[in-house]
Specification:
602 residues, alpha+beta, Immunoglobulin-like, 3 domains, 4-stranded mixed beta sheet, 4-stranded antiparallel beta sheet
Length: 602
Amino acid sequence: MEPRRILTQILCVFFLTTGRNEGKLDAKSCSGRPALKLDQACLTFHNQLPTGVDVLYTSDYCYKCLYQPLVSVLNGPQNASVVVSTVLTLTLQLQPMGRNTTLCSWSQLYEEAAHYSVWIQESESPINVICYQTVDVSPSNIYFPLLVVALLLALISLLCVLVPYLYRRRCTTKLIKTICHEGPQHAMDDETQGCGDEVNTAQPKPTRLRSLDTFRGLSLTIMVFVNYGGGGYWIFEHAPWNGLTVADLVMPWFVFILGTSVVFAFTSMQKKGVSRRQLIRKLTWRTVVLILIGFCFINYSPKDGLLSWSWLRIPGVLQRLGFTYFILSLMQTFCGMREIPLSRGRWWDPVQDVVLYWPEWIFIILLETLWLCLTFLLPVPNCPTGYLGAGGIGDNGLYPNCTGGAAGYIDKWLLGDNIYHWPTCKAMYRTTQPFDPEGVLGTINSIVMGFMGMQAGKILIFYRKKDISVLSRFLVWAILLGNSAAILSKCTRDEGFIPVNKNLWSLSYITCMGCFSFLLLGVMYFVMDIKGWWGGQPFIYPGMNSIFVYVGHSLLGSYFPFSWEMRFVDSHWEKLFQSLWATSLWVLIAFLLYRKKFFLKI
């Protein structure tokens, strides 16, 4: 049986899905000062008023959200305790029980593991009621583990740079002493051999761009770390709706490098004389395998058998990558083999890498026009046209069933209920509608994001011997895309024309990520491929075996030694250690495979 078929069957049989719950307010009592979990604090309300009060809350991250009931405190002197989330800033509001009058209101970012007391008392001032807060138990420093890990990683990185440098310096010193002082000839030969090739041979410059593999590996390493929990820190979780976190960066980076790799791979095959029919057969096979792998391991459950039809989901990460790869590869197959000539004094020479590929640009512009028309002009039943919100209790609760607007409507119309039922907005916005972050409409902008990577690939190929031209063009693209994102979002999270939104893969999101991608790839290209200051370790190893690492960590993520049942659930230390340990193991596995020259390719 062919190795590809064996791999596909193994992936379909052994995958076990895991999920994570979003942090949210928990209305259970925390009286008696029990041990709090991660991202939790205890609030105790002391009511000294002759009437009972209702405590309402909303998160400042939740856009125009309705206030939700938190706890009720009977007429005083009475008190009530409640657990609250410490992830984002909360706005609390006190009202007389059964009345819609605000007694007092305040906003605060509560700190993890702390215990607070809120005192509600009568006052002789015209306000009549005063509310003040005290700290009963001081919070813990939740970022101390992250700081320690950052310092350790910085120290390890410094040692990895200094040790080879000192070794080369020592070898060079020994060689100089041997040459300058009299001694037998074989002594110089021994010293030269002991120092390696750095002093007596010139290593040929590698033809493979290390920056591409390193960029891919960096994205994949962060993705693995995030999928293993990110140490329990909210900055490594996806944003509830609009906005960006670290977890929202990696997928578009991966798509960007996918587009760059397509240009390099297909240009190489076209130069070798591979026919168009062979290219189409190859790209079709790889697309089908990627989609099947993603479909199988997303829907596998040991209880239901090979495929879990009871909770089938059609879209997914690998499905989107596979379809994006298919479209980009077709573009490169039919329009990609064109040489950019040297400057001839024409007015359009500065943009000749765009003008010469005008068929691809027309296709991408039409594709983005389709996204804009469907997003802002498609009528959605019982929802405002062009709606981009999360629905639920957001937007003053006016559109509770309109999660994602046209994107959510198209997915439900085409795929039915076979989409994601636990979107990132579900906990905060109290949504009831399923919404898939890898849905149909967002895949259009995934193709556009990959096309930006293709543009980077064309620049690297045709201006490779002109490093200044490569870096300047990367900078120009970063500025153009960054300004576009700033205009579309108005430099705000929720008030822009098109907010930055990973769930929707909005236009402002991909232009923002395109800006970051060009900047990061440009920096890596300068540091690694021009100056040679860094070899890309350790990220280059998973970058050269990305399919193996991604699928492997998805399959084995819930098994020892990658994870275990944690004992200290109220601290970030063990959770952060587990996330780093599992991520490091996959980097180590990728390194060992690199040493064995094993690279899984589909």
